Amino acid sequence: MKIRILGSGTSSGVPRIGNDWGACDPTDPRNRRTRASVLVTTQTTTILIDTSPDMRAQLLAANVADVDAVIWTHDHADHTHGIDDLRQLMHNRGGEPVRGLARPFTLEQLQHKFHYAFFGRALYRPTIAIEPLPDSLIIGDIRITVADQPHGGITSAGLRFDSNVKSIGYATDFHEMTSIMRALYADLDVWVVDALRRAPHPTHPNLAQVLGWVGELQPRRAALVHMDQSMDYMGLAAELPAGVEPGFDGLEMLA
């Protein structure tokens, strides 16, 4: 089982519009960050997490033409507004809608915002067959366990993937670590985790918080994502402890 970081950036990406690189070195390609999304795969199963506004380019770079399911962590624009590009996956499947899963509130919000994608319109068939995301399920040869994470005034879905005694955790868009989350992310081979910036933020974790949790939970390998323009790749790599690295678009990590 492996996880591919499709997008390692925050909602504005890096660089921000206006060619704003902030503290990031523009000559280092690892600092060019699209919006947050990942792909979890085995030899037989492919699961996409979120449909970022950059999804088309991300899936082209990953050479992925179909998935077994899409899981949405929450309904914010930087995690959902590439949803239209699932239509091409539906065509690649011979017209069969793509399976989608989301927690009930997220599901309702997606259906409200993108009604046509789930129910069709005029001559266009539905693109997605969505269902509630339970606390635990199996897709192909991957077991998925879910915990609700505080994210400002809503929650996001924290995700753990287990297959053949290997485990991967994906934690994005949250601002505190609950006991349920600690249990979810214990004893991981790989943990991909939101670390927005060094300065505190009301709805995302900062670098010091994440490093504290890494020290507590002891994943065998961790990568930071959802980073803004203050988080230069080489600067981070020089200061992070062993076993922790800055993520970047296209990074693949084996569990």
Written description of the protein model:
It is a single chain. The protein is of the alpha/beta class. It has one domain (2-254): Ribonuclease Z/Hydroxyacylglutathione hydrolase-like (Metallo-beta-lactamase, Chain A), CATH 3.60.15.10. 23% of the residues lie in helices and 29% in strands. The protein has a seven-stranded mixed sheet. The N and C termini lie close together (6 Å). The mean pLDDT is 98.
- Going by helix content, strand content and strand pairing, the class is alpha/beta
CATH class term: Alpha Beta
Average pLDDT number: 98
Under CATH, the topology can be stated as Metallo-beta-lactamase, Chain A
Shape: globular
**Beta-strand percentage?**
25-35%
Radius of gyration: 17 Å
| Helical content band | 10-25%
Major β-sheet strand ordering: 6-5-4-3-2-1-14
Q: Alpha-carbon distance between the termini?
A: 6 Å
How many β-strand stretches? Answer: 14
Total helix count?
A: 8
Low-confidence stretches: none
- Main beta sheet, described? 7 strands, mixed
CATH superfamily (homologous) name:
Ribonuclease Z/Hydroxyacylglutathione hydrolase-like
CATH architectural group: 4-Layer Sandwich
Order of helices and strands: EEEHEHHEHHEEEEEHEHEHEE
Number of individual domains: 1
